[in-house]
Amino acid sequence: MTNKTIIRIIAYIAGLIIQALGLALMIRSDLGTGPWDGFYVGMCSHFGLTVGFWLIIFGVIFIFCSSYLMKRRPDFLSLITVIILGLCIDVWLYVIHPEQKGAEMQVFTFWLGLIITSAGTGMYLQGEFALTPADQLMIALCRRLGLSLTASKTIGDSCALAFALVLDGPIGLGTVIYTFLSGPLIQFLIPRIERAIVTHVKD
């Protein structure tokens, strides 16, 4: 196994763990979550179970949606990513309970979560293994409709926002910020993370 392969595996696993941490921080900020996470929290509030559980369930649905859009067999390897992400989110939500609830702490927690989530997404993508079902759907929309990565993610997140509102999920100003800034932020970070993690590692 080459050094580059080892680095990619580490980046893949670490990126998912980091992404889950960022999502949990945004949920705990009480300023509004990411659209899909708001939907999962809403499902959790209405029907029980955990946020991570609903993430995994809908991850399976996304796998089949992506398969239809791309006209190919479902990529069940992406279940690995959604299971890791779902379990990690539940663990982080169990661990993270900010003691201070002031406005400054809420804003800090949200922005920290947004940056960490975007960095984690950019990092795990460097692994070049299976995508999370949500990201797989984003890529499928990008290719099928000829959209940019930013546009396809914005469309997907906007749909999730509507579902979250129907379920009275934790939607707020932070949700709007995440919906329109996460795509550009990920796109901005990906080449920088790639240079830092991959390109300077010799085989």
Automatic annotation (TrEMBL):
Cited InterPro entries: YczE/YyaS-like (IPR038750)
Segments traversing the membrane: 9-27, 39-64, 76-96, 108-125, 145-165, 171-190
Record carries keyword Transmembrane helix: yes
Keywords of this entry: Membrane, Transmembrane, Transmembrane helix
Record keyword Thylakoid present: no
Name listed for the protein in its UniProt record: YitT family protein
Source species taxonomy: Bacteria, Bacillati, Bacillota, Bacilli, Bacillales
